[in-house]
Amino acid sequence: MDSFTLNLRAAAIDLNCQIDTPQLKSDIWLQCKRSLLSQKASGGSLPSQPGALKQTTSLVEFDNLPRPALGLAESPRGNLLYPDSTELQRTECSEMLQPQHDFVSLLPARKQQTPNVAPFHHHYTPTSSSSSPCPCSFLPQPSSFLPLLRLHGNGLLRILLTLLTALCILPCQAHAVLFRVGVVGPWGCDRLFAKALPNVAAQLAVNHINRDPSLSYATTFGYAVLQEPCETSRALEAFVGFHTKASGYIGPVNPGYCDAASMLSKGWNKAIFPWACVGYELDDVRSHPTFARSMARPTAVLHSVMTYFRWAHIGIISSSDDVWVDTATKVADSLRSHGMNVRFVSFMENTPHGIRRTLAKVRKMKEIRAVILCMHSVLIGGLAQKLLLETAYDMQLIDGSFVFVPYDTLLYSLPYINATYPAVKNNSKLLRAYDAMLTITIDSPQLSFYDAYREAMERGEVARTLKPQQVSPLFGTIYNSILFMAHAVHRVRQSGVWMSGGNLAQHIRNLDFQGFSHRIKTSSSGAVQLDYLILDTDGSTLNLMPTYKINMEINMVRFLGRDIHFPQGYGPRRDAACWFTPGVLCSGGVDLLLTFSMLFGSIAACVFAVALLYCIKRRVNQIRMVRGPNKILLTLQDVTFINPSLSNKKLSLDDSRTSGGRSTSERSLNTPASSQSPATYENSNVVIFEGDWAWLKRLPDGRFRRINPKTSDLFELMKDMRHENVNPFLGFFHDCGVFAIVTEFCSRGSLEDLLLNDDVKLDWMFKSSLLLDLIKGMKYLHHRGVCHTRLKSRNCVVDGRFVLKVTDYGYNEVLESQRFPFVESRPEVAVDGSRDPESQSSGTPRDSPRRRLQLCYHNAGGQILEKLRKPPPLCRPVVSPDYAPMECIQLMKQCWTEQPDKRPTFEDIFDQFKNINKGKKTNIIDSMLRMLEQYSSNLEELIRERTEELEIEKQKTEKLLTQMLPPSVAEALMVGAVVEPEYFDNVSLYFSDIVGFTTISANSEPIEVVDLLNDLYTLFDAIIGNHDVYKVETIGDAYMVASGVPVPNGNRHAAEIANMSLDILSAVGTFKMRHMPDVPVRIRIGLHTGPCVTGVVGLTMPRYCLFGDTVTTASRMESSGMPYRIHVHQSTVKVLQELNLGYKLQLRGRTEVKGKGTEETYWLIGRDGFTKPLPVPPELKSGQMAHGLQMAEIAQCRSFDAAKMSLAENRDMKQVFHKAVKKISHVRVVTQLYVPEDDHNVMLTHH
């Protein structure tokens, strides 16, 4: 045996003794082993320990030392705890081998206690950007080696550990990421939740993750079992305290505060992966971005099963524990959101009496098809479910009319193959009652939970203190959820995004991994896709057999070949299909008698309430009519009669007639006795009411019975009317046998008094104003549903401001409500009593008062009635056009039509009257104010117009100035500042002229030359607007443009000038002169780049000019160029090449430049991406100059044009020759004139 093996064995035994316990934690043991092996790999040896060199044969025996088993508790600092949570004394070795995660666990074999989880300081330790794994990531933190160095004071081990410490400090210090998973649940609330062994499940999952390099890459996982209070009211408060205790959360188990927990996690930006939350609103990514389900939503599975069996009427029973009460409530809400008819949700007391009362409620509901039990399953020891099933059996409810469905089995994979359950093994009653139970659980086809747990025990990963049947299958759900979060963390690490809760929730798509006992898959949307089984018994044994399989990936229920065994041979009845058809309303399960009874009761209650409110309102109205500031019924205590002698002409003759049987002396108000007599209700109609004068419109003599509801409603309606052209109703006077309508007193009297007063001369403006007031008043009355029926000049009063107001509205209605006889009616009704009085049209303005009075005074009453009874001719007044415009007279005649339905409404009358007045305001006060304001408004309008004109001219001047000069120069000149010359280091200039412009001008009229230059330069100006250039000037046919001035643009000036030159050359290729369209317009272009000075020269017609040798050189480049060519100087070529924009340059060679000698110049022939066509430069013959246009070209085109014009004007040969010779006489030399012998064609050819 070599010395290294002996030293390794001795060190291992020594470490084992230092811990002072025969068991070690698995990951600590592995880290010890790796630490020792690393020393072997480095070529060193372990120091000898006296007394430790036992009989060791090989290094393999290292693995035979006592290995740790799970089920032990450990403090947050890594110290091992005994089952009673007592902490052992900390040792140097345990300090050295402290893991990178903290563990807290519960021992299931002992009495459950709520562990105190110590807070930790870091959730995410920053990692390095390196993608390679840390070579010593399996080792503890370097600081933990120091105690061991003190333990072994000398020897090779100290040297090796020092080297390992240095190696771990440098490359690996930033690699370790601690991710602690918080397992939230009511683990200490009852023994069945504790049977899930959350600490053991979490520790097993964390060990598996940390040992898997594909999951723990650059991340170390830890866990913390977090106790959820048993009361829901305190659960949220406790969850707030978990903020600093975990990096992500598995749970909570209580769905009552899932929404709040998800919102808190959102605020903390930590992921929360629950398995028991059922609310569909939690799947909204916008509201809950850090929320993700670690398994399928249980209510979605229930809905699939109920839909398959068509069981729509559901009941829910829960135990009295808060966690199950909230579960039942949330399940009911979720099923109702799916359209299920949840008939009741009952919270059962865990006593025989409470269970019987709950089951009695189920018995009353005959339509119940399934009852969901929110409580612990009896198969894992649920006492409440056991009592409920036994009581249901005793009450003979196990008859197949409905089924029980346990809810908690949806949350885990329940073993069913060769599985025994001690809770129901020896209970025959419970066995027969369980035949009415349909158990839905997660499918685990390859390995059941018990088998998976047994294998973990055999591997030594969990303690052997408990049998698999004593562990709740919820153990596997906790394990799977932690593994689910680990895969999400791994996905986030791979993607390179920030480790946040939102990113974890978004990186759960398309997962596929092996869970504790079954595989877990997710879809592309992140939904967990698990298969579920419906398990059933045969009624005699507890052998759970699969009958149906639920595939949540495609939401389908598949029959497995074995029917469900129901107690009586048949199952619950199927409900109508409408319950499961979207958008269809079902009436099934509705008690029609109860519904009709409730409907009838509601209607009766509404009718009674309406009647009561009506009576109360009537009583309140009656009180308001005689009391308060708005009372309507008036007596002598409310009004004071005054002597009306001061305004005797304002009293209506009609009102004096209504006094009936009074004497003539009483009716006459013009006698001195009446003026001097005291005012009483017998001789006066004018009163003082609330400090203002009011008018009493007396009703005919007769007894006023009482204020009935119809009269009261009428008074309320009249009281509410408010319009400037309607005389307001103030109240109804009834006292001393006098009944009268009280209205506002108008000092000008009635319209009849005003028209009969010869002292008052009214022009058309006043008349039209009064007419418009009348139309507006009647229009308002008709909008309020009031028909006047007594419209005449006596019922139109005028106040002191010459505003006409309609009065006596509602008078006939008051008489009708009290059954008084009518004293007036319309002519068509008086002639034909069968006509309906209400058939009168809205608009019935009467005739002129003067004309009607003449008819009344000069014709006896019988004669008038006779004329009305036996037309024609119709008894209508004759109105002269001098009294009113003809349009107004025509409108008046339309209102006299015999058929009321053909008369215009007041809406039509208002519109026509506005047209008659041409839209002008006819109100008297408005007219006077308009005349006074006209002068001031005209003056203001004149000032405004002048100001606008001045502003327009100013804008035109500024625009013209900015077109002639740069904006900066123009602004300086406008403010009177001196424009200083400005030096520019580097600018690009463009020069061009027209080839042969002198020849073209010699053969054109001056106006034609102007048109040519205007058309060409307009084309150029449109092109330069698309580039960052400045047009300097045009002199004759020369066109000068610069870029880089007056605003510098870096090196882009050369590119802008080059692009503009290519666009101009392309446009010139298709340009045509108006007067010589066949003569091509060829231009030469020259470009040069260099420094220059700019400035404004002169005071008269100032110009912005450029000075310097650059201007001269650019002009020389143009003059030495060729037609249809862009001649570029070498300085410009250099800048274009630096820009590297793909300009195509062709070397011309050395060219003689005037004043510069010979220099190399270039042709610019295009640019990458430039697709516009360029004209083809003409080929110059030997001796032909490039600076002019050949006369032959103009002559040929002129001759051809002359021939065409001659043929178009006349076919006569003589005239054709005469005009052709006249046209070509402008050409200096004509070589040959050829006339073919053709009667219809003449061809002139110029050689």
From TrEMBL:
* Keyword entries, A-Z: Cell projection, cGMP biosynthesis, Coiled coil, Disulfide bond, Lyase, Membrane, Nucleotide-binding, Signal, Transmembrane, Transmembrane helix
| Span list, region Disordered | 652-679, 828-852
Q: Which residues form the Guanylate cyclase domain?
A: 988-1118
Gene Ontology biological process terms, A to Z: intracellular signal transduction; receptor guanylyl cyclase signaling pathway
Q: Which residues form a coiled coil?
A: 925-956
- Give the matching SMART domains: CYCc
Q: Any idea where this protein resides? A: Photoreceptor outer segment membrane
Of the GO CC terms on this record, one is: plasma membrane
The protein's GO terms of the molecular function aspect are: adenylate cyclase activity; ATP binding; guanylate cyclase activity; peptide receptor activity; protein kinase activity
Spell out the Polar residues composition-biased ranges.
666-679
EC number(s) reported in the record = 4.6.1.2
For this protein, the parts annotated as crossing the membrane are: 592-616
> What topology does it adopt in the membrane?
Single-pass type I membrane protein
* Residue ranges of domain Protein kinase in the record: 651-916
The record ties this protein, via CDD domains, to:
CHD (cd07302), PBP1_sensory_GC_DEF-like (cd06371)
InterPro entries (alphabetical): A/G_cyclase, A/G_cyclase_CS, ANF_lig-bd_rcpt, Cyclic_nucleotide_synthase, HNOB_dom_associated, Kinase-like_dom_sf, Nucleotide_cyclase, Peripla_BP_I
Q: Supply the enzyme class, top level.
A: lyase
Any one Pfam family match given in the protein's UniProt record, by short name: ANF_receptor
List the catalysed reactions: GTP = 3',5'-cyclic GMP + diphosphate
The family assignment reads:
Belongs to the adenylyl cyclase class-4/guanylyl cyclase family.
Q: This chain belongs to which protein, by name?
A: Guanylate cyclase
